[in-house]
Design brief:
With 187 residues, this protein is an alpha+beta fold. It contains 5 helices and 5 strands; from the N terminus they run βαββαββααα. 26% of the residues lie in helices and 29% in strands. A 5-stranded antiparallel β-sheet has the order 1-3-2-4-5, with no helix packed on it. Strand 2 and strand 3 form a beta hairpin. The protein is globular. About 17% of the residues have low confidence.
């Protein structure tokens, strides 16, 4: 069964039990040389940063549960991509895990989403400095609106609205599909 590195609301054990019954929590881990960001669509993501690390949890999930996670994180709507990346387990050792990457950075999270991610990070006892970093991403102003599911409710609606306004990518030559070296090269 594949390993999945969760750094969003999927760190919440009860939410994962509901969304992916049978998923087994392996423990906390970190993705080195990356930092947490919010995409223009309001989706959590990570981008390369040689001085940072993203903390999260490692799940052992069934192949059938990948479709649920793909849908939750917007892969089916073109909001992200996934790749196998090495992560470091907190107790020692490494693992290769599926990680979802959003497209772009410098966005704003819908109200309620960052609060859920921060609560999940605290429940997993992630480092206090990292939780403080997540808190710096909290949206300013407005009453928090609770987001249902992993990225459902307000986040899904906001993402769909932004995605609908985005112009479709067109290849420069008919019949030629652009190639990207990594998921981070897409903008």
């Amino acid at each position: 069964m594949p390993l999945y590195f969760a750094y969003t609301t999927h760190m919440d054990v009860s939410a994962m039990a509901e969304r992916c019954p049978g998923a087994k929590l392996i423990g906390t881990a970190r993705l080195m040389r990356h930092r947490f960001v919010i995409t223009p669509e309001g989706q959590p993501s990570v981008v390369r940063d040689p001085r940072q690390a993203v903390h999260g949890v490692l799940w052992d999930i069934g192949f059938g549960q990948l479709r649920t996670i793909d849908s939750d994180l917007g892969l089916t709507r073109g909001l992200c991509t996934k790749a196998l990346q090495p992560v470091l387990k907190t107790g020692g050792g490494g693992a290769c895990a599926l990680i979802y990457f959003g497209m772009g950075e410098a966005g704003r999270a819908p109200n309620g989403l960052m609060e859920q991610i921060i609560a999940a990070a605290r429940a997993q006892d992630l480092p206090a400095g990292y939780v403080k970093e997540l808190e710096s991403q909290l949206p300013r102003g407005g009453a928090p609106v609770l987001v249902g599911g992993a990225l459902g409710g307000v986040a899904a609606e906001a993402s769909a609205a932004v995605l609908a306004k985005r112009p479709a990518l067109k290849p420069s030559m008919p019949g030629v599909r652009p190639r990207f070296a990594t998921p981070f090269d897409r903008t």
